[in-house]
Amino acid sequence: MNRSVMPTPGGYSQNPEMAQAIDRSPTFSSIADQMLHERDAQAMRYDYVYHLNATVAGQTTQAFNITIEQGTDFKSLWLTGDCFSYDAVNATSFPIPNSLGSTAWAGDGISIQITDTRSGRQLTSGFVPAKDLLTPGYGLNFQQPYPFRYYWYRNTKIRFDIRNRDGALREHTINIALKGYKLMSPND
Predict the structure, then answer these.
(1) Alpha carbon separation from 167 to 11, 35, 61 (Å, rounded)
(2) How many domains does the chain have?
């Protein structure tokens, strides 16, 4: 018996009694059913991450899009990300020193507005501070990703308007990851 391949019902032609016993076994049947269900479910739904990398100049607001492809819908579950900047005076990049000389993530002055362009819905109440949506926000410690449950239809653009109010006019780089799963309909 090849143990690397799961046997199929009736697959033991050398020993018909053993094959019949396995086929009648409720344990084997439930395992086989579970594996078939998992395979079929994965064909219709699988984990996926959309990523956005944006650079925004100081004292500007810019729009960036993530496009949900034509072939599948997307159910987002979590939103996470970070912000960083290059400080030419102190020749450091990540994390950036703050005015007190200690380190903090660059994110001061970064705010985000999220819009579902298909429906026109704004999913934030105007511009929300990046520290409220992204991880790790302003601190150096890891925080739980923000739960962001939303069903996105195929061919939808998710617009992220990012505002940088950095008074020193530094560019900030923002990385955003939208985690969830893709969904295919049975007709795809």
Answers:
(1) 72, 57, 14
(2) 1
Torsion of CA 27, 28, 34, 35, to 10 degrees: 150
135 part of a folded domain = yes
Question: Does residue 71 form part of some domain?
Answer: yes
Q: Tell me the residue type at 19.
A: A
Sign of CA dihedral 78, 93, 131, 112: negative
CATH of the domain at 156: 2.60.120
Q: What does each C-alpha distance from 153 to 73, 74, 113, 159, 162 come to in angstroms?
A: 5, 6, 19, 14, 23
How confident is the model over 133-174, as pLDDT tens digits?
A: 887 555 555 567 889 999 999 999 999 999 998 777 778 888
- Taking the C-alpha atoms of residue 146 and residue 18, their distance in angstroms, rounded to an integer, is 52
Give me the phi and psi of 102, to 5 degrees please: -90, 170
**Which residue in this structure is represented by tokens 């599948």?**
72
Report the relative pairing of strands 172-183 and 146-152 from DSSP bridges.
unpaired
pLDDT at 55: 92
What digits encode the pLDDT tens for the residues 83-123? 877 655 555 444 544 455 444 445 568 899 999 999 999 99
Check: CB of residue 102 under 8 Å from CB of residue 95. no
